Amino acid sequence: MRHVHQRAPAPRLQHAGDRTRTDLVTVAPLPNFAIIRDLVPDLRPLFDKHAALMPHIIRDDVQEMYEPTGEYFQTRHELEQFLQFSYCIKCGCCGAACPTVATDPEYSGPMALAQSHRYNADSRDGGFSARRQVLATEKGRGSATTRANVPRLAPRASTRPARSS
Ligand code: SF4
Fold first, then answer.
1. Which of 83, 90, 101 to mutate for ligand 1's pocket (most ligand atoms within 8 Å of CB)?
2. Considering the chain, what is the average pLDDT of its residues?
3. What is the CATH number of the domain that holds 53?
4. Which of 23, 94, 103, 162 is most deeply buried (CB count within 10 A of its CB)?
5. 30 C-alpha to center of ligand 1: Å?
6. Which residue segment(s) compose the domain that 89 sits in?
7. What is the pLDDT of residues 67-110, one digit of tens each?
8. Helices (DSSP H) in 34-157: which residue ranges?
9. 52 contacts 136 by C-beta, under 8 angstroms
10. Which ligand 1 atom sits nearest the alpha carbon of residue 93?
11. 19: Cβ below 6 Å to ligand 1?
């Protein structure tokens, strides 16, 4: 028997001002960002805050960081501590939905904070103190969202990963 697939009717575009219709797709610029033009948001503050929190591995042994002599192994458990946070695609949607981002332009925002945690939770990383200093200078650290995350951002037991020779 042949199955006939019914195609859903194509959604019609909706002007951003008409929020009473539920059968239409709204096309509008990403909220909480300045608009460069038409549907193009200015994402530079998003990425500036992201970069300020040093979203990369920072080694305690600086010489090894710049002139590596081997690989740094991790256990499955150590990988699981940060893996889900490494899936962020930097789309900015969390910032667009965040009421604190909407009202406080200095707040680091959920994307930058999540990426800060991604590296803080990495057993190869020693950058917690440096990132904490950045957060201490921004309103992000004092926000309700960040306070709720402080226990998760607290220093972890330092365990240097095994290294191949
Ligand atoms: S954390 Fe934010 S920026 Fe990253 S994928 Fe999720 S919504 Fe997008």
1. 90
2. 81
3. 1.10.1060.10
4. 94
5. 13
6. 37-153
7. 989 888 999 999 999 999 999 999 999 999 999 999 998 899 99
8. 44-52, 62-66, 76-80, 93-97, 99-103, 110-120, 128-136, 144-153
9. no
10. 7
11. no
